[in-house]
Amino acid sequence: MHSLLAALLFSVALAGPAGAQTQDRPPLPELLQRAGAANSRGAPDLVALDVSPTRGQQQPFFRAVMAAPLVAPYRAGVLGDSFRGAVGSPRELIGRAGALSGARLQRPADFGMAAIEARLGAAPDPLAAGLAWMASTPAGAGWVPVLPDEAQLRGPLRYELARVLAAMAQPHAFLQRAFARFPPGVTPQLLRRQALDGQLTQFEMPDYRQLLPLIEHEAVLAGMLDLVGAVERLQRFVKSEAALPSLAWSLQTPLGRIVVDTSGQNNRHLLKDALLVLDVGGDDEYEFLAPGDTHAISVLLDHRGNDRYATAAAGADPSSATLGYGILWDTEGDDRYQGTGQAQASALFGAALLVDGGGSNRFAASSHSQAHAIGGVAVLVSGSGDDAFTAQTYSQATGGPGGAAVLVDTGGDDRYTLGNVPLVRPSPQLPDHNVSMGQGAGYGMRGVFFDGRSTAGGIGMLLDLAGNDRYEAQVFAQGVGYHEGLGMLLDDGGNDHFEAAWYAMGAGVHHAAGILLKRGTGNDVYRASHEMALGAANDLSVGVFVDEDGHDEYAVGQLGLGTSHANGTGIFVDAAGNDRYTVMSATCRALGAAYMHEWGNARETLPALGLFIDLGGADSYPAHCARVANNSLWAGPRAWPQLDLRSEAAAGADGQWPLPFALRLLTQPATPAAAR
Q1: Which helix (H) or strand (E) segment is 553 a member of?
Q2: Are 344 and 368 in contact (CB under 8 A)?
Q3: Are 225 and 94 contacting, i.e. CB atoms less than 8 angstroms apart?
Q4: Where do the DSSP E strands lie in 312-454?
Q5: Confidence band (pLDDT; 50, 70, 90) for 673?
Q6: Distance of CA 325 to the CA centre of its chain
Q7: Are the CB atoms for 270 and 308 separated by under 8 Å?
Q8: Given Cys at both, which of 188, 275, 479, 659 links 322, Cβ 3.0 to 4.6 Å?
Q9: What pTM was estimated for this model as a whole?
Q10: Mind listing the pLDDT tens digit for each residue in 96-119?
Q11: Is the pLDDT at 4 greater than 80, yes or no?
Q12: How many CA atoms lie within 13 A of 280 on its CB side?
């Protein structure tokens, strides 16, 4: 895992197999020549990123994409495959997401458990020994638990519960280390108000934006890896144990409530600040009350049943975390998740995980949910089944400042919706639409218009591995980056449908990058009602779109289908099939074009690149787009043709050529025989 991901994160040169393939295969060389960018690596001018006051916050993978956009499809495809290979282990997924966020950490899977197991094995009561560390915390001074006797909670289950409770000691200590440099006055309420609700006053102190460089991300990741590893072990035990003792037991500890129910009943749990919940069997209902300020770790493991999870306040469900860790793991069943804000794998200065092992599930929330992270890591993984994800804003794989958020769905015909009802965050571009900022989005904050305290964006990746899926969103969605952020949507196979309004489907905005990569065979529909979509980039950004195969339909208002605006790099590629293109702009501002916001300034000499490539089939183009046709090459329009400005470099191609860059690894690991 780590060597492959490290290579992806830190290699930025246009070199190696992907670079060689990009350079050698037509039509790319001739297309770049025709655009007036024959020696281009496709990168926008990077000076603004290099001198940015948030240069130290920019994520490595984001920098790699910005430096070599023509290699971005390869990088994104290999990254997606690395997550595909890890879906069987949530711990591995957390590790990969942590690496994506820039945390440089390799941690053994046993994380020191041998010493813990030796201590538990030597103790008269392993459960008492597993809880003993809590008495040494400030909240637990002098605490003596009242425990069930061996007849009530016996054998392997008692030991496994003791083991996971003992394993929590180290993550608890790592949390203290991770945020040790924070000033007094930092509370979950303050962080939610500022970072999630956007209620900041100018030059406020403390300020979450100024806390981001103070996080020790390796400590955050180390503790979460340890915790997830312990819960993975408990999950395997529960699934494999033939006869668990039937009991219902609860204990209030200094760090939260423990609830264990193996009776198989249909339970209704009303929970506040749960530390560990284990429920086996039954169709259960969970309601989570508003969390307290000091609650840091929550774990809920439910095995079997069709369950319901509802939150009464932001940050209440166990798969959300503020200054801490949260895990919700449901092994199977048709489940319903109902949240408000900050729910369903949402990390705010911490790490969060939601695992649903399968079934047809419904996830509903309002904002900052369904894999959202600021100052940490969030992962949501859902197994096979027809799932529905619904929210309004900042949800469905959204990486905010200092965050990496990943949503992986392994199969089924899924529906992802970021809607307008209710209208909670009106878009400046379209006031009757919400700012979606999701379905693979990375965003930062442009403080230049407020108090100058900007933040670099994070990374969000939505990875759907199979099925006929539907994606609906508004403004900023479906592989979009905003202000030094990177968003990716990767869909593998199926007949899919994508709808959005503005800044979507592989779009970068204000020094950012967005990628939409559709691999495999499928007849897809892509509809953007307004502009800056389908391989479009604005203001020194990168937007990349690739569809590998199928008979597809594309519609955009304007400024899309391989378009650069204000010195961006917009790349659109359809690799096969009989496709239909619709451009609603009467002037056909699309299909391989580069435009400037205004002339008469120094940006006229900065690079831009707009590329449109259709590589097969008999395609249908709008009649009013005169320069575009089947089996032809064309240069983009120029306002100043006599000057041959780099800021107007653009071209398009339609013809029978192979895809000019790889979307997967080009080699396979050597077999033992070959290695000899």
Answers
A1: strand 553-560
A2: no
A3: yes
A4: 320-322, 325-330, 336-338, 341-343, 346-348, 351-356, 362-364, 367-369, 372-374, 377-382, 388-391, 393-395, 398-399, 404-409, 415-418, 435-438, 441-443
A5: low
A6: 17
A7: no
A8: 188
A9: 0.95
A10: 999 999 998 888 888 778 889 999
A11: no
A12: 21
| 149: number of Cβ within 10 Å | 8
pLDDT digits (tens, 9 = 90+) for 496-540: 999 999 999 999 999 999 999 999 999 999 999 999 999 999 999
3-state helix/strand/coil string of 603-635: HHHCCCEEEEEECCCCCECCCCCCCCCCCEEEE
Q: Which residue has the tokens 């030796």?
A: 118
Q: Which three-class secondary structure state does DSSP give residue 201?
A: coil
- Mean pLDDT lowest among 37-41, 567-571, 646-650: 37-41
Tokens coding 568: 């961006």
Residue at 401: amino acid letter: P
Point out which residues pair with 372 in neighbouring strands. Answer: 346, 398
187 exposure class (CB count in 10 Å sphere: 0-12, 13-18, 19+): middle
Q: What is the dihedral of CA 472, 74, 374, 288, to 10 degrees?
A: 50
Structure tokens that stand for 98 in this block: 């942590």
Residue 250 is classified by DSSP as E
Structure tokens of 332?
């199977």
Measured CA to CA, the distance from residue 81 to residue 136 in angstroms comes to 44
pLDDT tens per residue, range 202-217: 999 999 999 999 999 9
Token pair, residue 529, equals 């009602």
Total length of the chain: 676
